[in-house]
């Protein structure tokens, strides 16, 4: 049965109307991925020297063993956002006269063919060959490396189960990230070192194959946990209606106070929480709120007077990340129903204003959630206030204006993070206003006067943009109305 299923998967991809475009994008992604994996392999080759010479740690093996837990925590995070679920492929096979168990085994097995599953081997394989083999022998190097790889592969199956079981549950997602943050926070504060607690497990693998047997058991159990859940829930009605039933009534009632634009914003919110790609952007928005922890307490960015110019980017990024990420596909999110808005009275104008409401509301939420950064100094609060005003008054209009340049259609039911439908040159160029516009205002005043004068200029510019906001937003709406036939024609192209 394996060969027919592989043949069907190949024919599906080759017969797709977007096969040529997907092939071109695939080649580019393959080249980028090849270089990234090569860099990881080179990093693994010099890992022992980095530990000994740069960090000054004499026992590199003990140090790596105590840090492996944090690597696996990081792996949990990037697998959560990157690793794809085989659910949509499952819909294509359930109606066929095939054993459901065999179909699920095939789909789970195909999901295992991923560059993510060789990252641990590329990083720690050279380390085992260079460092562990010389210090403990070949047998120890093999058993240690196998223990690390089995742990990584167990995470693969755990994430497949977790994303399918809890991805639509905010509580489930927050519980995992809370556990990760608490573990890192305890270790950083010296209250409890989780890495040192799990270090004996990998140290023991240098002496005995027992950890391999235990980790292999964990791998098998995690696979069958994933298999059992998919087997139990593999029904077409569950796959096609589950999201709709779960999120049907989750609206933001207060938006109705803003008239038709508020109703459109409410519909846009439902779109976000019902589809994985848009919901991923919302989740990333919450994760990137922690971005400031990398910079605000870092001695490398501390100055005797004023503050580091890098903080302007950090504040802009934290308070405007959703507006930039979600806004780069400004109308592509609505491409399947764009003709509906075209033929409604004031439909496009309400659509644009509704998106403005949503951008401002979520950005305001990000600003409020970032207020605890005042712990690092009141100047951080001033930075976030100034950058928030600038994002609302200036950057938001720049993002929307660029997003109107040749928007492309997008299927909301496909992929999540690394799905490039709807992406064009302008979508990649949107990062320019996020980087350049705030500094174009801040740097001259910071140079002529001081950093706080630059903040005043940044906030004042944003405040002026908010004063003239009705006029600028009307111009953006008129721009969409002017281009409606061109945009609608582009959206009618087959994906």
From TrEMBL:
Domain of life: Bacteria
Pfam families on file: DUF5687
Keyword Transmembrane helix: yes
Record keyword Transmembrane present: yes
Keywords assigned by UniProt, alphabetized: Membrane, Transmembrane, Transmembrane helix
Transmembrane segments: 21-43, 63-82, 103-129, 141-162, 174-198, 210-230, 280-298, 310-335, 356-375, 381-405, 425-446, 452-469
Name of the protein in question: DUF5687 family protein
Organism placement in taxonomy: Bacteria, Pseudomonadati, Bacteroidota, Cytophagia, Cytophagales
């Amino acid at each position: 049965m394996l060969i027919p299923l592989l043949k069907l998967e190949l024919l599906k991809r080759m017969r797709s109307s977007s096969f040529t475009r997907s092939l071109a994008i695939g080649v580019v992604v393959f080249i980028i991925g090849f270089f990234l994996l090569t860099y990881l392999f080179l990093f693994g080759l010099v890992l022992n020297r980095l530990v000994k010479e740069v960090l000054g740690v004499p026992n590199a093996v003990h140090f790596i063993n105590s840090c492996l837990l944090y690597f696996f925590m990081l792996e949990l995070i990037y697998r959560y956002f990157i690793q794809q679920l085989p659910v949509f492929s499952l819909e294509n096979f359930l109606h066929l006269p095939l054993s459901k168990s065999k179909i699920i085994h095939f789909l789970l097995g195909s999901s295992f063919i991923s560059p993510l599953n060789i990252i641990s081997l590329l990083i720690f394989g050279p380390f085992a060959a260079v460092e562990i083999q010389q210090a403990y022998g070949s047998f120890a190097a093999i058993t240690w490396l196998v223990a690390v790889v089995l742990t990584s592969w167990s995470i693969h199956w755990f994430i497949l189960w977790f994303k399918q079981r809890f991805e639509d549950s905010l509580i489930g997602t927050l519980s995992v990230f809370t556990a990760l943050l608490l573990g890192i926070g305890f270790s950083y504060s010296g209250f409890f070192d989780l890495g040192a607690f799990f270090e004996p497990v990998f140290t023991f693998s240098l002496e005995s194959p027992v950890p391999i047997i235990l980790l292999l058991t964990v791998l098998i159990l995690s696979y069958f946990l994933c298999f059992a859940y998919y087997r139990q829930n593999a029904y077409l009605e569950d796959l096609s209606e589950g999201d709709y039933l779960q999120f049907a009534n989750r609206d933001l009632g207060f938006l109705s106070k803003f008239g038709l634009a508020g109703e459109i914003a409410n519909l846009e919110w439902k779109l976000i929480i019902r589809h994985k790609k848009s919901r991923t952007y919302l989740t990333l928005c919450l994760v990137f709120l922690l971005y400031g922890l990398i910079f605000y307490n870092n001695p490398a960015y501390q100055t005797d007077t004023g503050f580091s110019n890098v903080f302007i980017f950090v504040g802009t990024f934290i308070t405007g990340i959703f507006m930039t990420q979600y806004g780069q596909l400004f109308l592509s999110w609505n491409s399947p129903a764009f003709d509906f808005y075209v033929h409604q009275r004031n439909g496009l104008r309400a659509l644009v204003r509704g998106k403005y409401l949503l951008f401002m509301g979520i950005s305001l939420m990000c600003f409020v959630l970032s207020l605890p950064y005042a712990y690092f100094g009141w100047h951080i609060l001033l930075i976030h206030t100034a950058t928030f005003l600038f994002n609302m008054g200036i950057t938001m209009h720049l993002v929307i204006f660029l997003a109107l340049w040749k928007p492309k259609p997008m299927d909301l039911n496909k992929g999540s993070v690394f799905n490039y439908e709807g992406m064009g040159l302008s979508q990649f160029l949107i990062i320019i206003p996020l980087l350049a516009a705030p500094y174009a205002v801040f740097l001259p005043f910071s140079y002529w006067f001081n950093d706080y004068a630059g903040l005043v200029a940044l906030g004042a510019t944003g405040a002026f943009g908010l004063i003239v906001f009705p006029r600028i937003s009307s111009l953006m709406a008129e721009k969409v109305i002017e281009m409606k036939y061109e945009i609608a024609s582009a959206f009618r192209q087959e994906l």
